[in-house]
Write a structure and sequence with these properties.
This protein has 16 helices and 19 strands. It is an alpha+beta fold. It has two domains: 26-294 and 531-546, Periplasmic binding protein-like II (D-Maltodextrin-Binding Protein, domain 2); 300-506, Dipeptide-binding Protein, Domain 3 (Dipeptide-binding Protein, domain 3, Roll), CATH 3.10.105. It has a four-stranded mixed sheet, with helices on one face. Strands 4-5-7-6 form a four-stranded antiparallel sheet, covered by helices on one side. β6 and β7 (170-175) form a beta hairpin. The longest helix has 18 residues, at 489-506.
C-alpha cells in the first residue's frame, strides 16, 4: 500500500477530491442505472479487474461462515447451478441457471437428478492436473459438507440423505424430507476435488484452491493481495474476458477511497462494490461518468443475547433493549445507507419477496422498531431490571462503519438507563467465540451472506453453530421445518411471514440496525456488469470486460 495514501485523512481527501474535480464537475445529481440489455458491442479480451478486499480466514468453505471465503472461491470454483448475472438482472433478484450441471430434474419431492456437463476440467495445477470433473467429485463435496466436524454451514446441506453417482456424469440427491430450497442454496455450493485437500483433509491453504472456475488463484500474499489469473481451459468458450483479477487487502475506508479516486480500482471500494453514501457527491464530481445502481443490501448488524443467562430469558428485557434503539440514529452513522433504511426483521429486508412488511407484524413486533426509550425503561422496571448493566462483545476488525453502528447502539441503550460494557475482540477470535457460545452475556455482530430466507431461519434451531442466542422454541421449530417442506411459494411465504410474526413477539434477537439502501458503482469502461446482493463476484465479473 502506498503510504502517502494511508496518511491522508478522510476530511482532507474529500476536500482534495472536490477541489480537483471542481473545474470539470457535471452537476451534483445522481442518475442510477436501471437493468437493461447487455452492452451492444463486441466484448474485449484482456486487462485486470481490481478491487479492495479483506484477508479471508482461510479457503475452506466448510470451515467458516466468513463471507470473504465464498467471495474469493466464486472466482475459482463453481456449483451445480449459479445465479444469473449481467445488466439484465435486477439487483436483489437471484434467478437460477445451469452451471456445472447442464440440466436437472425432480422426479419426486425428495429426489433431484443432475446431469453434469462433459469436458469440464479442473485447474491445471497439481495434484489435480486438469482432470475432468465427474459425478464422484460432487458426491465427495456433499458428503464432506455433511460429515466434516465443525461445519458452520451444515444447515444448508442437512436435508440431504444420500448422494449417489449414477454414472460418470449423473448425480442423484435423495432428501430425508422434501426440501423446497435445494436449488437456491446447496446446489450453489462450490464443488471440490478430493485430491486437492491437505494432509489433514482441509482446503484452508492457498495451494488447495483448485476449482473449475473462470480464474485460478496464482498468488496469495497475506495482508497485501490475492492475484487470480484467467483459466485458459474454462468450459465456457471465450470466458472470462479479463486476464486477471486482483484483490488488494485494504481495510481502511480512507485508504480505499483514495486508491479508487486515483484510479487504482475499477469498482467502488466497499464490499459488494458499494460506495459510502457520505462520499457519493464528491465521488460523482470527481468521476462524472461513473456507473451506479441502488439496492437494499443483505448486510446488517444485530445483537444476540444468551437466552440461558439472566436477565435475557425475560422477554420484557429483550423487548426493552430492542425498542430502546432509535433506528434513525443508527442509520445516520451508517455511511452506506446514510439518511435511509428499512426495519430489518429475522428475514433481511433485502430479500424483499420474503421479508414481512413491518406494518403486518403484531403490536408487540411493531413496537420494537419505534425507538421508545421511555417504554423501554418502563419494561425494564417491570422486569426488576432498572439500572441494568452487562458486558457485550463485538469486534473492531470489520471497519469503522460497523464500529460506529455498535457505538450508537450502546449509546442508545444508555439513554434508556442501560449500561453496556463493550468488549472488542479480533474478528476471527470473535467469530469462534460466538459460534462456541462462550461469550458471557451478549454479542453484537453482522449477518448477510445467505441469499434465501432458509439459513436465517434454520440457524434458529437447537444445536446450530450459528444459533448464537440459544433459541429453542418448539412452535418456531415446527414452522421452520414446515417452510422447508412447502414447495408452493405463496404458502411458503405465508409460513415465513408467520415465523417473523412469532419471532418479533419473542425478540430472541435484537434487530436494531435498519437495512441500508446502498449505492454500488463501477467505472464507465467496465462493460456488461451489474452488482447484486450475495457473494458471487466471480459470476458477475466472468462475462464483464474492460473497454480501455
Amino acid at each position: 500500500m502506498d503510504q502517502s495514501l494511508t496518511a491522508v485523512s478522510r476530511r482532507d481527501l474529500l476536500k482534495l477530491a472536490g477541489t480537483a474535480a471542481a473545474a470539470g464537475a457535471a452537476g451534483g445529481s445522481i442518475n442510477f442505472l436501471r437493468p437493461g440489455p447487455a452492452d451492444a458491442q463486441t466484448p474485449k479480451r484482456g486487462g485486470v479487474f481490481r478491487f479492495p478486499g479483506f484477508d479471508p480466514p482461510h479457503f475452506d468453505p466448510h470451515q467458516t461462515p466468513h463471507w470473504w471465503t465464498p467471495i474469493f472461491l466464486s472466482l475459482t470454483h463453481g456449483g451445480l447451478v449459479r445465479h444469473k448475472a449481467g445488466p439484465s438482472v435486477v439487483p436483489g433478484t437471484l434467478p437460477i441457471e445451469p452451471h456445472l450441471a447442464e440440466s436437472w430434474e425432480q422426479p419426486t419431492d425428495t429426489t433431484y437428478i443432475f446431469r453434469l456437463r462433459k469436458g469440464v476440467r479442473w485447474h491445471a495445477k497439481p495434484p489435480v492436473n486438469g482432470r475432468e470433473l465427474t459425478a464422484d467429485d460432487v458426491v465427495f463435496t456433499f458428503q464432506r459438507a455433511l460429515t466434516i466436524k465443525g461445519n458452520p454451514n451444515r444447515a444448508v446441506f442437512e436435508e440431504i440423505d444420500r448422494v449417489d453417482a449414477l454414472d460418470r456424469y449423473t448425480v442423484r440427491f435423495t432428501m430425508n424430507q422434501p426440501f423446497a430450497w435445494f436449488l437456491h442454496s446447496p446446489a450453489l455450493a462450490p464443488i471440490l476435488p478430493k485430491e486437492a485437500a491437505d494432509k489433514e483433509g482441509m482446503f484452508k491453504k492457498p495451494e488447495t484452491v483448485i476449482g473449475t472456475g473462470p480464474w485460478m488463484l496464482e498468488r496469495y500474499e497475506p495482508n497485501v493481495r490475492l492475484t487470480f489469473v484467467r483459466n485458459p481451459h474454462y468450459f465456457q468458450p471465450g470466458l472470462p474476458y479479463a486476464d486477471a483479477v486482483e484483490a488488494r487487502i485494504d481495510t481502511d475506508p480512507a485508504s480505499k477511497l483514495a486508491a479508487w479516486l486515483s484510479g487504482q480500482y475499477d469498482f467502488a471500494p466497499e464490499i459488494h462494490m458499494t460506495v459510502q453514501r457520505t462520499d457519493l457527491d464528491v465521488v460523482k464530481r470527481h468521476k462524472p461518468n461513473l456507473q451506479t445502481t441502488e439496492f437494499t443490501w443483505l448486510i446488517s448488524t444485530f445483537a444476540a443475547p444468551r437466552l440461558d443467562v439472566p436477565p435475557f430469558g425475560d422477554v420484557r428485557v429483550r423487548r426493552a433493549l430492542h425498542m430502546a434503539v432509535n433506528g434513525a440514529e443508527v442509520i445516520a452513522v451508517n455511511p452506506f445507507g446514510h439518511g435511509q433504511g428499512a426495519p430489518n426483521p429475522i428475514v433481511p429486508a433485502a430479500l424483499r419477496e420474503w421479508a414481512i412488511p413491518i406494518d403486518q407484524l403484531p403490536p408487540e413486533g411493531r413496537q420494537l422498531y419505534e425507538g421508545n426509550p421511555a417504554e423501554a425503561k418502563r419494561l425494564l422496571a417491570q422486569a426488576g431490571q432498572s439500572g441494568l448493566k452487562f458486558p457485550v462483545e463485538s469486534s473492531g476488525s470489520w471497519g469503522p462503519a460497523f464500529s460506529d453502528v455498535v457505538q450508537v447502539i450502546v449509546s442508545e441503550w444508555k439513554k434508556a438507563g442501560v449500561e453496556a460494557d463493550l468488549k472488542l475482540k479480533e474478528g476471527n477470535a470473535f467469530i469462534a467465540s460466538s459460534m462456541a457460545r462462550s461469550f458471557e452475556k451478549m454479542i453484537i455482530t453482522l449477518r448477510g451472506g445467505a441469499t434465501t430466507p432458509d439459513p436465517y431461519l434454520v440457524n434458529l434451531l437447537p444445536g446450530r453453530a450459528l444459533n448464537f442466542a440459544g433459541v429453542n422454541d418448539p412452535k418456531l421449530n415446527d414452522m421452520i421445518q414446515l417452510q422447508r417442506r412447502t414447495f408452493d411459494e405463496s404458502k411458503r411465504r405465508e409460513i415465513i411471514f408467520d415465523i417473523q410474526r412469532h419471532f418479533s413477539q419473542q425478540a430472541y434477537h435484537l434487530f436494531v440496525s435498519p437495512a441500508a439502501k446502498v449505492v454500488a458503482a463501477w467505472e464507465p469502461y467496465v462493460k456488461n456488469f451489474m452488482p447484486n446482493i450475495g457473494n458471487d463476484y466471480g459470476g458477475r465479473l466472468m462475462s464483464a470486460w474492460l473497454d480501455k
